[in-house]
Design a protein that fits this description.
The complex is a heterodimer of chains A (about 500) and B (about 160).
Chain A: H1 4-14, H2 18-36, H3 42-52, H4 58-83, H5 92-103, H6 107-140, H7 145-163, H8 168-182, E1 185-186, E2 193-194, H9 200-203, H10 208-226, H11 244-249, H12 251-266, H13 272-286, H14 298-322, H15 328-339, H16 348-351, H17 355-374, H18 378-384, H19 389-406, H20 411-429, H21 435-457, H22 463-467, H23 469-483, H24 487-508
Helix pairs in contact in A: 1-17, 2-4, 2-17, 3-4, 3-10, 3-15, 3-19, 4-5, 4-6, 4-14, 4-15, 4-17, 5-6, 5-14, 6-12, 6-14, 6-17, 7-8, 7-21, 7-23, 8-21, 10-19, 10-20, 12-13, 12-14, 13-14, 14-15, 19-20
Chain B: H1 2-29, H2 44-67, H3 77-85, H4 87-105, H5 112-126, H6 132-153
Helix pairs in contact in B: 1-2, 4-5, 5-6
The chains are: A mainly alpha (about 500), B mainly alpha (about 160).
């Protein structure tokens, strides 16, 4: 039996060819531009490129998408530092300290540090992915229809909880709605057409890519055109290559944020933005100089950028082992894998035994390309930030149309994209998060088919849904997640904890 | 922002409850023994449960919004008028209308490059992204570039 590192090395060697290297560099560069430009997110970039790379060889198509993913999350810090506008939601925390650094004339240092922290974060995340995915895959083999049903429900509940921190009810509504959206059209057991209202096009259901492009891309185009912001870039960038001591001195923040990024990434649907904020928060709490956070702290910037990039590897862990995406961009990556004939999930290790190592090698290539591009041509890249939105957004709309149309060549998909774009825009204005909706669209079929299949297997007996050990754990997690956001319960819980604490305190004395 | 939340939650809660109810009714109307499958494999079972969940959450959101403090639930004429007069609303409406017209023209007799170039030029000029001549040049270049790259290089069909 060969060792993992050797297998990764073997896969890496396969990617050393001029054509593949060319694809790696251009796609990482495109990803960085997408990430840099406020309004264009990693999810949207991958969704667009999924359509465009549909005709390519699967291996090349997937590496392009991974490069876009890594490039976009890394590139987003650039506009956060120079414009105080996060390029992607994942880079919002980088604004807090990146922009003050740029205002002090240390923009170059901030960019260099952010890029290096992103690189370290990605490498940390991908090694965690390579290490943990086979183990999770083995646990996933114990999952049957009952567990997969609860996993789908758990996914949207936890995602709704974490992506709508002020009002989880809206997150859960978005998740349930997403589940229902995926159930439009012919179902997988008896081929009955649901909610198609006699329209032939609706019988095929809503394709994932137009829905994603609509919710993330078109909603942003409408939002961007509604409020025109003229970018003011601080063009004085200065030294870019980071000092080794800045990284060595902050190794604890890097390590901690890496772990946080991977854990947050592995939670279904939560994603890079949450990883970045949690990493930032932990760094602030543990810092000796918390008062410097928000005023140009290198610790804050490093923590935020390591966390969001480590999340990439974390988000791919459940994609490969359970076919459940850890973040919105990972959801598109999962869809792209399906489109190219790869079936991630518990059987991946049997059907495609080397795929985990292949993805790891792809991510290594993407992270190196991202680091090289990040630290070079900075001044040229900064100029791209000056493109007015009134020019950029109509072009983005045209690309969204092509991206939605490309896979099935159906005009209907363009209308789906537009419809979900309007819905996405309304959701954003009414504080409903988009991530649970997208996760719901991915997991809907899993919930539907597995619940009905489980009932068929037990001749209608619902007891196994509650009595099987993994099902029971998942139900417990769902209930706890919901209860943790209900005020009377949290008040009761904290009061009980205080009483227990006092009781132990008395016993000590 | 928080002030407006009450009204937003009230109306969105009502819409969600209505959608939930509609889904429950439609699921109930779906066949119970489709192609001789047992009742517990009926196509409407999961959709019905999800619809019930959505209905419950919609009602919760509506009731909660009534109890909370904030904007009055009824819209005044002045609210609607000020929204309609807002420049941002005009920009949004214009972008939506242009995009809708663009999508309507796609897939018909007009070539993709021409439709796209016209759409881009009108959008850029209307939103004052740049001057008219520059807008026309950029639009033409982008339309031709997109068509060539995606159609010839990536072999993707154009709408």
């Amino acid at each position: 039996m060969e060792l993992g590192p050797l297998l990764i090395f073997k896969e890496l060697v396969k990617f050393i060819s001029p054509i593949i290297l060319f694809h790696i560099f251009w796609s990482t560069f495109v990803g960085m531009i997408i990430g840099m430009l406020p309004g264009l997110t990693a999810t949207m970039g991958i969704a667009l490129l999924t359509g465009l790379t549909f005709g390519m060889e699967p291996r090349i198509a997937i590496i392009i998408l991974i490069c876009v993913y890594v490039g976009a999350i890394t590139g987003g810090s650039r506009s956060a530092i120079l414009l105080n506008i996060p390029g992607t939601p994942a880079n919002a925390a980088a604004c807090l300290d990146g922009y003050p650094l740029a205002q002090r004339g240390e923009g170059g240092q901030a960019i260099g540090l952010a890029a290096t922290a992103s690189f370290i974060g990605t490498i940390f995340g991908l090694f965690c992915m390579a290490f943990f995915t086979p183990y999770l895959g083995k646990i996933a083999l114990e999952f049957h229809s009952w567990e997969f049903f609860w996993l789908a429900i758990f996914g949207i509940i936890i995602c709704g909880n974490l992506t709508a921190p002020t009002d989880p009810l809206k997150g859960w509504i978005a998740g349930f709605f997403g589940l229902l959206v995926s159930l439009v059209g012919m179902e997988g057991i008896a081929a009955y057409s649901r909610f198609s209202f006699g329209f032939d096009q609706m019988k095929g259901g809503f394709a994932l890519i137009p829905v994603l492009v609509g919710v993330y891309g078109i909603a942003e185009v409408f939002g961007g055109m509604r409020e025109i912001i003229l970018p003011k870039v601080r063009s004085k960038v200065g030294r870019i290559i980071p000092r080794a001591r800045d990284l060595i001195n902050h190794y604890r923040h890097i390590l901690r944020s890496g772990v946080i990024g991977v854990i947050v990434g592995a939670i279904p649907g939560v994603g890079e933005d949450v990883a970045s904020w949690v990493s930032y928060d932990f760094a602030k709490r543990s810092s000796k100089k918390p008062e410097e956070f928000g005023k140009g702290s290198l610790e804050g910037l490093i923590a935020a950028e390591t966390g969001d990039n480590a999340c990439i590897g974390g988000a791919i862990i459940p994609v490969l082992s359970l076919a459940v995406p850890g973040s919105a961009p990972a959801a598109v990556l999962l869809a792209a894998m399906w489109l190219h004939g790869v079936r991630p999930g518990p059987l991946l290790m049997f059907e495609f035994p080397n795929y985990i190592w292949e993805v790891t090698a792809m991510m290594i290539m993407a992270s190196f390309a991202s680091l090289i591009i990040s630290l070079s041509f900075v001044k040229a890249q900064v100029k791209i930030l000056l493109i007015p939105r009134a020019i950029l957004m109509p072009i983005v709309f045209v690309l969204c149309v092509i991206g939605s149309f490309a896979i099935n060549a159906r005009i209907f998909d363009i209308w789906v994209m537009l419809g979900f774009g309007i819905l996405g825009y309304a959701m954003r204005n009414y504080n409903y998060p988009a991530a649970p909706l997208v996760l719901g669209v991915i997991l809907g079929d899993m919930a539907d088919v597995n619940m009905r299949r489980a009932l068929i297997r037990t001749a209608g007996d619902i007891a196994p849904f509650f009595t099987r050990p993994i099902s029971f754990i998942l139900i417990l997690l769902i209930v706890l997640t919901i209860m943790s956001r209900i005020k009377p319960f949290t008040v009761f819980l904290s009061a009980t904890m205080v009483k227990i604490g006092k009781l132990f305190g008395k016993q000590k004395h | 922002m928080d002030y407006e939340l009450r009204r937003q939650d009230f109306y969105s809660g009502l819409i969600i409850a209505a959608i939930g109810l509609f889904i429950v009714v439609e699921s109930w109307r779906m066949p119970r023994h489709f192609q001789n499958w047992p009742i517990y494999a009926a196509p409407g079972i999961v959709t019905g449960l999800l619809g019930l969940g959505l209905l419950g959450m919609g009602i919760t959101l509506t009731i909660r919004s009534i109890r909370r403090q904030g904007a009055p639930l009824a819209f005044k004429r002045s609210d609607i008028l000020s929204y309609l007069k807002d420049t941002k609303t005009h920009r949004l409406g214009l972008m939506f209308a242009l995009s809708l017209i663009y999508c309507l023209f796609l897939g018909h007799r007009l070539p993709y490059i021409i439709v796209t170039a016209i759409y881009l030029a009108i959008a850029m000029i209307t939103f004052r992204g740049t001057g008219p001549i520059k807008a026309v040049i950029i639009s033409a270049m982008v339309a031709i570039g997109v068509a060539l790259v995606f159609n010839r290089l990536f072999l993707i069909p154009l709408p």
